[in-house]
Amino acid sequence: MFQKVESSGCGFEERIILRANWTVTDIDLKSPNGYREAYFRLHGYRSGAMNDRGLEMDMAVPVVKKWWMDEDGNTLAATMSFYIPADVQSNPPASTDEQLRVEQWDDATIYIRAYGGGRHDPEHLKQFELLKTALAKQNLTPYPYMKMTAGFTRPGYGRQRREVILVDNADMV
What we know:
By secondary structure, the protein is an alpha+beta fold. The protein has two helices and nine strands, in the order E-E-E-H-E-E-E-E-H-E-E.
């Protein structure tokens, strides 16, 4: 799902997120349980309970969250996504839940900064600023209206691996 790109930058990694199918659901940002509810909808699809074939699929990490912002940096909307495993990429089951959809994401250049915290960690938002600073030193311009994270470990289970992600501006315009 990712292809590493050779880059000379310090403080970030450059990758291509390869064209693939993802299961996507909106996060209700007004609900105190919005993130949890989104996760369990995605889990229902993956477990077979919410797809038209009843097909159980292996969990594929990372879990990707996207936030869309306005010009002032205020969050307008958010989604949570699971990568659809390789064995059903070419023909994924349809969702039976109207709040879930299968989306095909095109190739995109992304910039990543790894850290060991969660979205409630005070350092979380700082990681985006550190990533932007590292990119600016290399004259790279990320798309200003979207932020992403990738989670590779289950919350509360040992050391956490998270990545903050910004998409190259050229891939979004």
